[in-house]
Write a structure and sequence with these properties.
The protein is an all-alpha fold. It contains eight helices and no strands. The longest helix has 21 residues. The chain is elongated, with a radius of gyration of 21 Å.
């Protein structure tokens, strides 16, 4: 026979056992500095200049290193369009080599995780628009290559990161 319960289970404070309440909010939601849209436009023009010179990898690196986490939705959409423009300009035969060089950088894993976020956001936008089948196929090709290089952990890190692009 089991021993009698010494505490009423209905009086237990389950919020004290919740994992999210055991961490300070600044750990769960990292601070993001506000970003002006003019700064995002500057990065977009810098990326376009690099594209015009034929430096697609440099443009992609600049775009992924300067993510406007603290920007408003218009700024984030502008940056998304810049990243999608860069991805569309890189030939499919150069995708794997570009991603390999990015992943070999000291912050390469983080750059590929950010790229995964932009791929998913682009897929979300492409699925709601008409006539965006070509854009979706480009994004699916990039997704396949990113997962080949970075592994499935990139997907998990993208899904669990609270910062949005």
């Amino acid at each position: 026979m089991s021993p009698p319960l010494t505490a009423n289970y209905r009086l237990i404070d389950i919020d004290a056992l919740d994992a999210d309440t055991q961490f300070p909010p600044e750990l769960l939601n990292p601070p993001c500095l506000p970003v002006e849209i003019s700064e995002i436009q500057g990065f977009a023009s810098q990326c376009r200049q690099l594209l015009q010179r034929g430096d697609q990898e440099g443009a992609l690196k600049v775009a992924l290193e300067n993510v406007p986490y603290g920007g408003d939705e218009a700024g984030k959409d502008l940056h998304l369009q810049t990243v999608l423009e860069i991805l569309s300009s890189i030939r499919s035969s150069e995708m794997a080599s570009t991603l390999s060089r990015l992943s070999s950088l000291p912050n390469g894993t983080e750059l590929l995780d950010i790229l995964t976020k932009y791929i998913y956001k682009g897929m979300k936008d492409a699925s709601s628009g008409a006539g965006s089948g070509g854009k979706m196929s480009v994004l699916l090709s990039w997704h396949e290559k990113v997962v080949d290089i970075a592994g499935e952990g990139s997907i998990v890190r993208c899904m669990t990161d609270r910062r949005t692009v």
